[in-house]
Task: inverse folding
């Protein structure tokens, strides 16, 4: 999952599900250090993309709320 474009195609729900899987993997322990660092990096990327989607959704909602009603 090193390709950022792969994350852009995922829905918010898919990102959260993938992030939960990464967290579970890290919490269970037993990963060698390099794999744990890679998993942590994936989690950060997933979290950042999910946050971007939330920010975009908030902006869209705010724009709709500011529209004059007819």
Result:
């Amino acid at each position: 999952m090193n390709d950022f474009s792969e994350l852009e195609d995922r829905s918010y729900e898919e990102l959260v599900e993938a992030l939960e899987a990464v967290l579970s993997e890290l919490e269970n322990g037993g990963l060698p250090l390099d794999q744990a660092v890679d998993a942590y990096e994936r989690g950060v990327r997933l979290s950042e993309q999910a946050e971007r989607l939330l920010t975009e959704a908030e902006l869209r909602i705010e724009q709709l709320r500011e529209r004059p009603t007819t």
Observations:
- The radius of gyration is 16 Å.
- DSSP finds three helices and no strands in the chain.
- The helical segments are 4-8, 12-28, 33-66.
